[in-house]
Amino acid sequence: MSRAFVKEQDGDPGDEPLPPDSPHPLYVTPDGLAALQARANELAAGLEGKKPPSEPAAAEQYRREKREWRILERKLDRAILVDPAKAPGDVVAFGHWVRAEDDEGEASLYRIVGEDQADPARGQISWLSPLAQALTGAAVEDRVVWRRPIGDLAVTVTEIAASPPLEEH
Asked: Which one of 33, 52, 142, 144 has the largest count of C-beta atoms within 10 Å of its C-beta?
């Protein structure tokens, strides 16, 4: 086979090009920043002084960890810390916990967080999401419309807090 068709591995296998960053600012809460830093430190400690292994499975694990560490380092360079405790507590802002109730009286608890911290199953919603966009700037008793693909849903803000947890109802 011609050498023209064989891909040579130059340098470290974890040094391949990284995916592009999100075009949005990388806002993070204090605990979101701490989680990014902790994971980057954990990966750095595991990679420190290591050379790429020759065994294929170990080399792939090394490549994934180094790539993840490089992505995290880039994110940490871009991170913009937003402390919800410094925002006015009378309107919904980044990092706040928000309880909202629909017309049937079903209450849900959400927290507006950065893209990397979002976990909708746990109520952690990205500040870029339609729900977070609807809630941001609302005050207690404000009614907002959450524009959803399955249909709009009106919700009323019932509580706002800068730190968890709001009382369970």
From this structure: 33
Residue pair 114/25 in contact (Cβ under 8 Å)? The answer is no
DSSP string, 35-70: HHHHHHHHHHHHHTT----SSHHHHHHHHHHHHHHH
- Distance separating the N- and C-terminal Cα atoms of the chain: 70
The yes-or-no verdict on residue 12 having pLDDT over 80 is no
Q: How many CA atoms lie within 13 A of 162 on its CB side?
A: 11
Q: Is the pTM of this model over 0.85?
A: no
Nearby residues of 67 by Cβ (< 8 Å), 6 or more positions away: 14, 16, 18
97 within 8 A of 166, measured Cβ to Cβ: yes
Distances (CA, A) of 164 to 84, 111, 123, 145: 11, 9, 12, 24
How does pLDDT run across 127-154, given as a tens digit for each residue? 999 999 999 999 999 999 999 999 999 9
Report the alpha-carbon distance of residue 29 to residue 3 in Å, rounded: 50
Complete domains list, the chain, with CATH: 25-81 (no CATH), 87-161 (3.10.50.30)
The mean of the pLDDT values for the chain is 89
